[in-house]
Automatic annotation (TrEMBL):
Ca(2+) 4 binds at D310, D355. Its cofactor is Zn(2+); Ca(2+). This is Matrix metalloproteinase-24. Hemopexin repeats lie at residues 351-398. It comes from Holothuria leucospilota.
Amino acid sequence: MARTSSILMFFLSSFALTETAPHYRHVTTDDAQEQIKIWLVKYGYLRHSEDVTSLEHINAIANMQSFYKLPITGVVGSEEYFIMQQPRCGFPDMVGKGDAWNAVQVAPRASGRVRRFSINRERQRWSSNFVTYRFINFTSDLPSSQQSEAVEKAAQKWSAVSGLTISKSSSSTADIDLSFNRQTHGDPFSFDGRSGILAHAFFPGGGLGGDIHFDDDEFFTTERINPGAVGTDFTYVTLHELGHSLGLDHSNIPEAVMSTTFVATTADIQLHRDDIAGIQFLYGAPPGGTVVTSGEVDPPAEPICAKVYDAVAATGAALFFFHENRLFQANDAFVSHIQPLSLEVVFPGGPTSVDAAFVSGDSVVTLFKGSTYWKYDLNNLQLDPSTPSSISDFGLSTTSIDAVSNTFGRLSFFKDNLYWTYFSTTGLAGPFSIQGTWSQVTVSSSSPLTSVFYRQSDDRMYFVRGSEYWAYNSQRQLVDSGNFNTVTQNLCRWCQARPGSDSSQLTFAPKVLLTSIVISGLFQSWIITG
């Protein structure tokens, strides 16, 4: 392709496949647990650290289950472990805010459906629907005529279902350069020899944009191969990589050519409906052709991003949301999409729903239900042996509380229009009038607070009553108020408004959030372990 002086944005996708099917070996429980942890870290579900908590581990497993459309339990069973042993893309499934990788969410369409195919982050596409490619060189594995035929066939498949015309060119200004290279070869991403990375491609654009590089240390064939056979299907790899060169990312539909898994097949490769929907989104349908949609519809939305939360607790960058018998955590420092979990799984022996909750600085979460409270260590989710116990331990004479907050070690208990403060050294003080201290917070016994929490990252104390909230700074000055769901949208990116519905009623669509993962100038690999 025509070279420019700088690379503004590019996409790199790569296959890394061994040439034999993965084998299974007997593993001990400890071995299996270590393999599971490595897998979760490797693919973005779990942060790489020695101090990972049990709750983080459960959340990681739950997110993995959501991605693979399994029942969300937070526990690895045989089905989950089997998936972890399979060939797959080496690029993380989940990407954190602070990670080097970049993630993009799929935007809802006006119809209320969500695109299931994946396009690149900046929606990069070729400015013209007439795209050209050229060979820089050929591999010695195959006659050049067979290589040309395989690429032409791949180009025809993408052209036939879209508004594109993709043709071979001998000009140095061709959009897409195809070349076979070994090891270090002029871009930031070296190949690794036989049985490693097979190829990589870049999103449309200047410089390396659109180019496809094949690892010439591999053995390519144009014969259809079965799993375990020697050789790599050049036709399949080319069809997939060309999709990236045109602007498509990976799909989470296993049957799609743009899926994260490599499928060896004896049949002629056909584009999936999902692949077609993606390419038509970028380039339109073929002249006189029919517009194709992916056919995939969102799963029923879980009512966890609800209008009213039973309790919200905050600690550092993490927020814990409680709704009926469900809990989910949002952590801006790591991953932004966390699956809801059953309280019975996370806090065994605890309440099945909560009235209030807070987290203390020593990573202990305290749950309140009625006149009883429970304390759990977030590092191992063990119940404090001194609990469950009565809230009278704090000096409270009420039979329940509406909300509780922890601000630098000072607890505040809220009930109806009153609150009490508690220090471990001085005990309970109060009651005091809520409106006497925070004048704009309007509550009563018939309309009490549902949550109160202090968020250190923005130095605000949030008072939540149903779907309303008031935010105060440390000087007890009102700095914000309105619909609480607008706050959750800003704090937690897994909440989204449904088109055509009340904008204040947010829902949680687990599968939507993981369908579009892209990289911009960063390396992606496909790996099978032998």
